Amino acid sequence: MIRARGLARTFTSRRGAVHAVQGVDLDVARGEVVGFLGPNGAGKTTTMRMLTTLLAPTAGEAQVVGCDLRTDPVGVRRRIGYVPQSGSSSPEARVGEELVDHAALYGIPKATGRTRGQELFSRLDLDGVWERTVRTLSGGQRRRLDIAKGLVHDPELVFLDEPTTGLDPQSRANLWTHISGLRDSHGTTVFLTTHYLDEADALCDRILVIDHGTIVAEGTPDQLKQRVSGDAVELELDDATRTGDALALVSALPGATDAVVDTSGATPRVRVRVPSGGRALPGLLRQLDAAGVALAAVDVQRPTLDDVFLEMTGRSLREGGEG
Ligand SMILES: Nc1ncnc2c1ncn2[C@@H]1O[C@H](COP(=O)(O)OP(=O)(O)OP(=O)(O)O)[C@@H](O)[C@H]1O
């Protein structure tokens, strides 16, 4: 659905050149939900604005839904939906009219716009707001209206720029359900930018991490987490005299690193990092049992996307963003 090669954009201002995006390659397949993650100023919006034809690239090329960005921008625009960061609905407009007028921009007749709008409203849990003014909608409802506008011409690919910024946790979770539903029930491909790691983790099949205008990491949320340092496995032992035996066994696990004994708490603990806690654990438990090392508890902790981000970019996404 998207194939970009060497996409770049440099802005020239009085203070000099800003290399906002510096040669981005990316591929998005049909039906994927792809998250574009990065701190403030990383180049997310600039990339999205290029892919949606709103900004001309200084270098590089891209095909979006089969149309070339440079030679057929109108073809691209017809086939995509774009939901910008700050919604585009005017506060005094009637909700239903806003949608029908937006559909008209795509040449959709009023009657069809109304039917399609009402279908979308029921899919997005907006029943009953058709006659209201935009101003009276909650933040979450307004965001869903923006999304309905982005979908009214039935695009195969929709771009969402920070879809949940500014929403309360419940509205965010609710919107995630709707975004996943787009793909699950309609096969819509979704490309979204976000500051929120939990959002990318919950929603995206694949994540691209951008920093200083270049893509610094790419993969499924699980793959990215595995690239960091593996899972942390912690064994809590019944008997402090057996920590040496437990340490020897965990140290011998394939790919084991950072094996340590911690006797600072009430119960002795042995910790280790392994590529996959789930895979290592069954064999380890058998070996501990065979060696007669009794356990009080076992804990496996997976790294978070924030750990990934820190490792890739040297800074926490939370510091860089608002989320
Ligand atoms: N029109 C412009 N003129 C000059 N510099 C710009 C312009 N638009 C963006 N930039 C700069 O390009 C860089 C990338 O900006 P961009 O908005 O793409 O980042 P972003 O990752 O979307 O950030 P945010 O999360 O804050 O939206 C920033 O340094 C920004 O200041």
UniProtKB/TrEMBL annotation:
Report the Gene3D superfamilies cross-referenced here.
P-loop containing nucleotide triphosphate hydrolases
Q: Which residues form the ABC transporter domain?
A: 2-237
Q: Which GO terms describe its cellular component?
A: plasma membrane
Q: Which Pfam families match?
A: ABC_tran, DrrA1-3_C
Alphabetic keyword roster: Antibiotic resistance, ATP-binding, Nucleotide-binding, Transport
Q: Name the Gene Ontology molecular function terms of this record.
A: ATP binding; ATP hydrolysis activity
Give the matching InterPro entries. AAA+_ATPase, ABC_transporter-like_ATP-bd, ABC_transporter-like_CS, ABC_transporter_ATP-binding, DrrA, DrrA1/2-like_C, P-loop_NTPase
Bilayer topology: Peripheral membrane protein
GO biological-process terms attached to the record: daunorubicin transport; doxorubicin transport; response to antibiotic
| Source organism superkingdom | Bacteria
| Primary localization | membrane
Location of this chain's protein in the cell? Cell membrane
PROSITE patterns documented for this protein: ABC_TRANSPORTER_1, ABC_TRANSPORTER_2
Say which family it is in. Answer: Belongs to the ABC transporter superfamily. Drug exporter-1 (DrugE1) (TC 3.A.1.105) family.
PANTHER family noted in UniProt: ABC TRANSPORTER ATP-BINDING PROTEIN, ABC TRANSPORTER ATP-BINDING PROTEIN NATA
Protein name stated in the entry:
ABC-2 type transport system ATP-binding protein
